[in-house]
């Protein structure tokens, strides 16, 4: 079926005709009609996808539009055309536009969901993917790598899209420059809303990566502007710029756990961006600088508490004569006219200095080359609580010049770097949500560095020609743009805001129909178990957010009689399970909780409180490639189990691990034979700040008797570990824990009797990832 | 004395006013007058240096000219103003011109002779050094490094200069990019005549170096165009391009022993250059490619016989993830529309592949990364004698695509790379001296690679738009520019051509006045010794080119009675000595020949034939930092000496050595105790192709008895060694020679009896230089 009709253009194209007149188009209802239409498309043509779900479609948009006469694929009604299943979109040719798609419930069979080439010979130029959504379009397993948008060619655009939920390996967006057809590409990534990307639990979780070390010598000229990055927490780099002459302008980084990093490549411009923290989360970073000639100007940093790699401005040490894929020395960087509000010690130099590790790392991994010819000038700092240090020198900042910077540090003294940072008392004025600037222009003459006259506008775009001032904002009367107004970003037809619905409570008294009730429940609902024993003989599948709780503590048991090596609770992708006040009992051969063995295409989560877990083979078994952002066990006992919490399957030593936060508070472990807590991250990777264990106020008795590695609490490779206020008693084990001194591992106030000891090793030897 | 006068401008400035009208200027006669005039100079002013020698002047030209109104320093009469002694010129400011100087008989006290900045803050921009000469302005010793022209800042020009004779360490010209003030500099190096630069005997003898590995990420945009490079033999790199976006256009490389090398940095343009060889000398190279994105187009290669590093087109293997200062992989290189006449196998890929050395070198020195995405298209080859191979694969050329290339290989079969090199019979036509092109356009369709349409002109500047053809030249009727017409290069007032004068012969009968007669002689004259014994009691100083010969072989002796450890002949800089048919006799404590111990600010040379050298401590002693391009000993005997030919003082292992060519033919060595022949180059340096020993038809008897290293002919580190047709008899030594198999070391037809043996070690372990 094919019908011709008149289509009124209402969508706003980035590449569009100047006249929004009525155009004739063609409505297509399946892939073969689409292919036929593409094949005969002429400049100016519009092909419209009919409403509905397009399943398993691999669209190859190969055509030739023209300047001001693109060929466009759009949708009958924005928001009513869904691309699902095994699907992808490839552009090949010139002046092509795709507008209004919604990718969901599926994954790409290819290197990416949207690809700006069809094959090596058929490359896209001047093509646009706009006004569309891609959500949760993950491959079936975390290690199955892809991107969602893969740029090739030149002058292509990603605009006004909403993109969220990538959990598998690979940057959400990658620009590829391998080949002369792809350099000096002037791609535009503009006006998009990058919604939450949860922590990946290892490297290769960037939101945008531009090039790679192998193309790091190439000019890219990619523009990333006016985007909102919201909770882009995939890994330590939100944007990894790896090529030359890229520009990052007027983006908003909102509560995103990571940084904009000039990882490779040189001479990038980072101007007029907003980095907004919450005043607490130390994972929310700013800008991390490596390499030569970057200009960091007119940026605004608010409430950031990140340190070292994640500090508001982290300027790294390089490796002398660095290998191509490691850390070049920083030189010729300009940091000027930025404003830092409540960022404590925003400037950190020599980040990554690791001379102490020279016995465990090869010389080609030692970052000892300090920044050179770097200037920090005309910046404004305000700390509502004065900081002892404004500049942290991980290595000497002797190649950095400070000029005409001003701080209100509330009178707390600081190193002023030969007068380069002046103490000035000034007030702030709030000119917008999260935007505080000095209340009036500061009477400090701006330093005129080489080519500083090219910094001609301020954060809000106002001219600096007259009445210039230091700091990111010149005209303190100006009102700021509403940077968190989400209607400014992403598709015109889509909102990510979900209306909160009241949670339902579903009562269950019988184990036999528990699964049925779980299936009936909606995301966020509560299954309420009555007092008594419920017998369960088959794994309970959890694939949504659900709470299972008993009315009273210790009055309700789930007795599991399923097969050996099957879990009572089988945690599927998107299975976020809260269990409260229920006793879980097995027959010694099964698992209380386990992920799927495969196809964990997105995260699970687990919270257990006020429970007793007894007689299982494993209390928790996380299989390889499964990942939970948080696993929390509180006020719970685990006893008579062969294994405890087993999160150590990521043994490929590529930096991956099974959970970001493992939190164990006020728990009791009795008679757990091995893998009592086994939490592993392998591979030396200085920039992934991975894994967090909090273990407090807990008691371990008669545990670890069969532990082959001789360590009760095994945390090898985990970066943040806090073991405190616990009691270890009568555990027949060599070590209670082996901690990594160089990282954020600590122990305190533990009572240890008739057990092993806690040992801290400063520099653990790990397999190099690079 | 200061006089004001009217000055008629006749010199052609690169940056000049449009009207060549009469201008008022000031004539200055000494440095204080010059300084005073500079201090008050205004845009458009001209300061004229009075004729004569300006000795020990350090000119700091700090002033502010304006667009089209430069401030100029020129000379009263071109060719009559000489800068001598300890002198230099520094520019600081904008729009300054220096025109007509002649630097000679001296050296700079600074990093360079001409420097485009006065200090770190006072940098030159839009300044020009033009129409001038710098000759032999060497520092006093070879290791005392400098440049002659040091570029800083932006938009500076070196034009129409004649520059020759640099022998000390350091590139003749260097462009420095360290600091944002110096990047994207658009310097112009144009219309110069680079006269002979003799081999330096080690690294750091480039004629032009643009940047270094530490600034190799920076954009430079330096233009090197329309220059003549004549016998620029300083080292293996004539031009070492180490930054990005440089352009090399329409230069002539005439019998220059080296190559244009893209050593670091990327995306350079090498277009329309001429590489002219002599059909024999294998040291004359072409273009050597490292890194990414270079375009090699419209170049003409004639009679080049270089191989490997010195081949007409050498595309290197890289080191995987190379350290910054080593070898990046070649990618995305275009080699199109070039013409190669009589270059045998002009295309060599994987040059520098050294997998065989992986046992003696660290992994970070192994070049195993083959070129990627490289295209060789639309080139024309002609071999008057067909070559077996047109392409030499030092490693597999599997990342190289050949398209639409044509060869006339005289019917000799060759690998055609899937039809990418076609066999076509065609004739040549001579369109200029050394310029032969295909007699008519070839009927082969040009391959249209990505952006090949940008190759819009041919070698002679003719359009390729219509009637395009493969090869460097489109219009076979066009006459070529007279590329070797020296009046097109260098200063208008200077010629490097010296009128040959008839050599004088001066007869000498008495040793006492021998030095006097040598001093009287002119360069090239002959001192003729009569039969008999001449007694010499003081070293004879040789500081010019001179021949000392006897009328009859074996009839004349020089008996030396000078002090111990002094030489009979003391070879000073520019001392080029030929000794023929004279017997030299010492008392066992002195040297027959020796260089100065220090201040060897330029080369010496030595040729000895038909002589007998007896009873010296050393036959020849070359001190550290002395260098001879050639030392030749023929038909001569050396006997009863403690040491023979000692050329092994360059022990700093930076790749230096004491002579380029050591040639020993038909000589006899008897009773020479140690250092019989000791010729050393230290330091691993794969690209310096350094040192040449030819030892043939000679006899060694009873030699080496005191040799501590156990090697009779010690050639450690020397790259080219040929030991053949010699006789070694009764030498109490372990090894006659230890040869370096991986390099060009060979031995043949030697008769060895009761002596050591000759051993070949494939890979010598040397100290790494980098």
From TrEMBL, chains A, B:
<dbReference type="GO" id="GO:0016829">
    <property type="term" value="F:lyase activity"/>
</dbReference>
<dbReference type="InterPro" id="IPR012334">
    <property type="entry name" value="Pectin_lyas_fold"/>
</dbReference>
<protein>
    <submittedName>
        <fullName>Alginate lyase</fullName>
    </submittedName>
</protein>
<dbReference type="InterPro" id="IPR011050">
    <property type="entry name" value="Pectin_lyase_fold/virulence"/>
</dbReference>
<dbReference type="Pfam" id="PF14592">
    <property type="entry name" value="Chondroitinas_B"/>
</dbReference>
<dbReference type="InterPro" id="IPR006626">
    <property type="entry name" value="PbH1"/>
</dbReference>
<keyword id="KW-0456">Lyase</keyword>
<dbReference type="InterPro" id="IPR039513">
    <property type="entry name" value="PL-6"/>
</dbReference>
């Amino acid at each position: 079926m094919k019908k011709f009709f008149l289509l009124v253009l209402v969508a706003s194209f980035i590449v569009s005709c100047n006249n929004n007149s009525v155009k004739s188009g063609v409505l297509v209802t399946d892939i073969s009609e689409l292919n036929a239409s593409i094949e005969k498309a002429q400049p100016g043509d519009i092909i419209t996808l009919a409403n509905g779900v397009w399943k398993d479609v691999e669209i190859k948009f190969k055509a030739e539009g023209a300047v001001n006469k693109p060929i466009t694929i759009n949708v009958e009604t924005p928001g009513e055309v869904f691309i699902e299943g095994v699907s992808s979109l490839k552009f090949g040719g010139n002046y092509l536009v795709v507008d209004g798609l919604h990718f969901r419930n599926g994954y790409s069979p290819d290197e990416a969901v949207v690809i700006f080439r069809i094959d090596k010979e058929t490359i896209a130029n001047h093509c646009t993917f706009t006004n569309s959504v891609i959500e949760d379009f993950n491959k079936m397993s975390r290690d199955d790598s892809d991107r969602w948008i893969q740029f090739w060619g030149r002058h292509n655009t990603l605009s006004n899209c909403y993109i969220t939920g990538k959990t598998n390996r690979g940057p959400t967006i990658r620009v590829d420059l391998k080949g002369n057809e792809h350099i000096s590409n002037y791609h535009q990534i503009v006006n998009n809303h990058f919604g939450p990307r949860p922590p990946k639990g290892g490297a290769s979780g960037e939101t945008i990566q531009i090039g790679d070390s192998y193309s790091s010598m190439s000019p890219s000229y990619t523009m990333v502007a006016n985007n909102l990055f919201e909770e882009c927490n995939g890994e330590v780099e939100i944007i990894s710029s790896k090529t030359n002459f890229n520009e990052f302008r007027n983006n908003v980084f909102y509560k995103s756990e990571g940084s904009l990093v000039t990882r490779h490549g040189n001479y990038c411009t980072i101007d007029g961006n907003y980095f907004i923290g919450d005043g607490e989360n130390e994972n929310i970073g700013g800008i991390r600088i490596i390499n030569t000639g970057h200009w960091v100007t007119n940026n605004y940093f608010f409430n950031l508490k990140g340190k070292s790699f994640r500090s508001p401005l982290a300027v790294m040490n390089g490796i002398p004569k660095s290998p191509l894929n490691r850390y070049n020395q920083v030189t010729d960087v300009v940091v000027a006219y930025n404003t830092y509000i409540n960022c404590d010690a925003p400037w950190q130099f020599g980040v990554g200095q690791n001379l102490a590790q020279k016995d465990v790392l090869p010389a080609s991994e030692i970052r000892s080359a300090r920044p050179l010819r770097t200037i920090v000038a005309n910046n404004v700092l305000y700390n509502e609580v004065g900081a002892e240090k404004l500049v942290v020198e991980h290595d000497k900042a002797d190649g950095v010049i400070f000029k005409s910077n001003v701080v209100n540090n509330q009178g707390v003294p600081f190193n002023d770097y030969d007068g380069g940072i002046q103490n000035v008392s000034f007030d702030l004025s709030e000119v917008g949500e999260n935007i505080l600037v000095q209340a009036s222009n500061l009477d400090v003459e701006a330093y005129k560095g080489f080519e500083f006259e090219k910094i001609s506008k301020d954060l809000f775009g106002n001219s600096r020609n007259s009445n210039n001032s230091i700091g990111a904002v010149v005209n303190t009367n100006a009102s700021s743009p509403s940077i968190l107004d989400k209607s400014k970003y992403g598709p015109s037809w889509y909102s990510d805001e979900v209306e909160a619905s009241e949670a339902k409570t579903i009562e269950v008294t019988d184990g036999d129909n528990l699964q049925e009730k779980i299936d009936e429940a909606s995301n966020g609902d509560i299954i309420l178990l009555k007092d008594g024993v419920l017998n369960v003989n088959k794994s309970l599948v959890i694939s949504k957010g659900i709470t299972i709780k008993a009315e009273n503590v210790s009055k309700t048991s789930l007795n599991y009689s399923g097969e050996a090596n099957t879990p009572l609770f089988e945690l599927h992708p998107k299975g976020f399970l809260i269990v409260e006040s229920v006793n879980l009992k097995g027959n010694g051969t099964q698992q209380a909780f386990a992920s799927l063995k495969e196809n964990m295409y997105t995260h699970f989560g687990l919270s257990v409180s006020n429970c007793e877990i007894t007689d299982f083979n494993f209390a928790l078994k996380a299989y390889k490639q499964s990942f939970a952002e948080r696993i929390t066990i509180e006020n719970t006992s685990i006893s008579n189990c062969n294994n405890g919490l087993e999160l150590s399957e990521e043994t490929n030593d590529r930096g991956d691990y099974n959970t970001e936060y493992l939190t164990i508070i006020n728990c009791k472990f009795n008679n757990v034979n091995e893998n009592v807590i086994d939490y592993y991250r392998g591979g030396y990777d200085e920039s992934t700040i991975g894994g967090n264990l909090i273990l407090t106020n807990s008691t371990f008795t008669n545990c670890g008797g069969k532990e082959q590695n001789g360590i009760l609490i095994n945390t090898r490779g985990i970066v943040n570990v806090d073991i405190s206020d616990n009691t270890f008693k009568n555990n027949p084990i060599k070590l209670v824990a082996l901690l990594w001194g160089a990282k954020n591992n600590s122990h305190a106030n533990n009572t240890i009797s008739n057990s092993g000891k806690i040992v801290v090793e400063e520099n653990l030897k790990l397999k190099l990832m690079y």
